[in-house]
Amino acid sequence: MAAASQPSARGLTGVRALVVEDTWHVGEALRYILEDLGLEVAGPAASVSEAERLIAQSPPAVAFIDVQLRNGELAYGLIEALHERGIRIIVTSAFAVLSERVEKIASILPKPYTPAKVLATLRQPAP
Amino acid sequence: MTKIARKQGEHAPRSSEAKLARILAIAGDAIVSMDAQHRITLFNEAAERMFGYSSAEALGQPIDILIPTRFQAAHRQHVELFALGPEVARRMGERQEVTGRRRSGEEFPIEASISKLHVDGELVYTTVLRDITRRKKAEEALREQLLAVQRLQTLGSRFVREGDGNLKEILGEIVEVAIAISSADMGNMQLLDQTTGDLQIVAQRGFAQWWLDYWDSVSRGQGACGTALERGERVIIEDVEKSPIFVGTPALGIQLRAGVRAVQSTPLVGRSGHMLGMFSTHYRTPLRPDERALRALDLLARQAADLIERERAEERRQLLIRELDHRVKNVLARVAAVATHTGRVSSTKEELLNSLGDRIQSLADAHVLLSRSRWQGVGLADLVRHQLAPYTNVGNTTIDGPKVRLTSAATEAVVMVLCELVTNAAKYGALSMPQGRVSVTWAAGSSGRLSEGIVIRWQETGGPLVTPPKRSGYGTNLIRRLIPHEIDGAVDLLFKAEGVSCTITLPAEQLVARDR
User: Is residue B301 assigned to a domain?
Assistant: First the structure.
């Protein structure tokens, strides 16, 4: 399957994305989905410090961030910091309810998700 | 000495007069007589004590000196009606209470009986008076207590009806009831913070903000409440100025500035005996709350502790539901991702379905083990045995290591990695031949202590000669990367010719403490 050749994925080629996700399978699957859409993916990172290391190497245009990371670490601080740097944030979470603040500065991609939903979320205007 | 005013020229027998005087002197009730002009003609010793006048001062004075001004006219009218009426006496309790006035001007409730008698053609009234201040106070206290108990009952049923969310409000109302019931001036309730071990005010009545700021968080041994926390029992400070808990500390000045002179702090103890918080009442005058008040405070403390425990149980239940919800979605997300991976690397539909089935089964296995352990951590030996079970026959596997239990995250990760190792061994390795052996052993980390984590060794022997795979497939990727990613462990997978070996290091945080 070559999603990158579909018209809906146009304009995403070469866009740098960061995946922050502590479930290895989910992070890997998201990486494949994004690579199929033509994005350049860093990660998955399972902790805030790993994410920061990857950002320092190559700042992303968009970051997919799970709220709860390895050993229960929460990503709210990271979300705020990336928002301040003008990086588009898509929060991927299995939590039913997120904070008002998060909903204000990030797009939400509820888990579990399909490649079509990932693409649709990327296509949404940033909040 | 009781004196009886006499009309001039009257000659009563001296002995009976002396006898009467003695009787009047020892009477417990005040006895006051007056003539038709309402002048006092008899004033016994009990009357002297009650009103604060000596009989010498009272005799000949109008009765009005014993009555508050606003009641004087009504009193005169009552007496005149009584004079005209057919009754000769009215006993105590047959009429309403009246109000007396002491020499000091202080007013007090009186129960009175009155009689009229014609002596030498002139009307003489005699009243027997009883000071009922104490009885009235007791009645009032009882009434207050009854009201408080009724309020408490209403509170309890309200909590049951409205459920969670308004605990603070209800605790505040319990403080209010406690103030009423123990005649206190102020009060508060604190909850014990489980992490810091400090007391924090959750409800209060009657305190200024600066006082609340000072006592916002109280450590063991600080103030009356911190001392009660330390001792695990009620502390009563009858006078803060004389208490070693306060004297010489800045807290004394704070209490005096707020007008607090006496304090009692009662621990809030849960049904299982652990401390939940503190319940304090404060008094503007130095005193010790009486036994009745203390019993009432005990009752209120019990009620408050029950409400707090209920609320906490409800919170735990909600948390558990949220966690379960989160977990189910995460598991589904993982299954969806596993399906994606497996689909990408499988060349036939049959291979895809088999591999997917195995992988979903390993997630289900992890769940079964965790659920069986009631989410308290899974024994590593159980976990390994469970994964090897389908391929185990007499003597082809060795499982050995100290007793350790893994967290749920580590259980899931290790089960998934073992699933891949087992599948690989069954297809291409030691478990594909009758003479093949697999040994899984583990030991405490580098210094030999579990606090350093553990090292698990998977070793295959006696199988076919191993040739390293040309490229890293999904299974080997999972084995190498999942544990470092998800639980910050380390994995060393080697394809040696004599058999596959895999060394897995798990950090100490992934082990469940033995005493749990």
Answer: yes
Checking if the pLDDT of B97 tops 90, the result is no
Whether the ipTM is more than 0.85: the answer is yes
Chain A contacts in chain B segment 449-488 (CB below 8 A): 478, 481-482, 485-488
Alpha-carbon distance B356 to nearest alpha carbon in chain A (angstroms): 13
Task: Identify whether B327 is part of a domain.
Answer: no
Span B237-276, pLDDT tens digits: 999 999 999 999 999 999 999 999 999 999 999 998 899 9
The residue among B89, B116, B131 that closes a domain is B131
pLDDT tens-digit map of B110-144: 998 888 888 888 889 999 999 998 888 888 878 87
Q: Give the integer Cα–Cα distance in Å for B276 and B313.
A: 13
pLDDT in tens, B148-201: 777 777 776 766 665 555 788 888 988 988 898 888 999 999 999 988 889 999
Which of B111, B131, B151 terminates a domain? The answer is: B131
Domains and CATH numbers, chain A: 14-123 (3.40.50.2300)
Nearest CA in chain A to B480: A24
Task: Identify whether residues B83 and B151 lie together within a single domain.
Answer: no
Q: Which positions 406-425 of B are in contact with A (Cβ < 8 Å)?
A: 409
- pTM of the model as a whole: 0.59
- For residues B207 and B186, the answer to whether their CB atoms sit within 8 Å is yes
Question: Is-contact A25 B331, C-beta < 8 A?
Answer: no
**Do residues B156 and B267 both lie within one domain?**
yes
Let me know: does B464 contact B433? Beta carbons within 8 Å.
Answer: yes
Q: Specify whether B303 is located in the same domain as B353.
A: no
pLDDT at B513 over 80: no
Q: Are residues B101 and B173 in the same domain?
A: no
Structure confidence by residue, pLDDT tens digits, A57-86: 999 999 999 988 998 899 999 999 999 999
Contact A94 B509 (CB under 8 A): no
- In angstroms, the separation between the Cα of residue B338 and the nearest Cα of chain A is 6
**SS3 helix, strand, coil % of chain B, rounded to 5?**
50, 25, 30
**For the domain that residue B423 is a member of, what is the CATH number?**
3.30.565.10
Residues B78 and B163 in one domain: no
Contacts of A112 in chain B (CB under 8 A): 329, 332-333, 335-337
Q: What number of other Cβ atoms are within 10 A of residue B105's Cβ? A: 8
Indicate the residue type of B139: E
CA dihedral for B196, B199, B204, B210, sign (positive or negative): negative
Q: What does DSSP say about strands B235-237 and B262-269: parallel, antiparallel, or unpaired?
A: antiparallel
Shared domain check, B145 and B88 = no
Chain A residues with beta carbon closer than 8 angstroms to that of B407: none
Domain that holds residue B355: 348-510
Q: Tokens 């009186």 belong to which residue? A: B110
Judge: A27–B485 Cβ closer than 8 Å, yes or no: yes
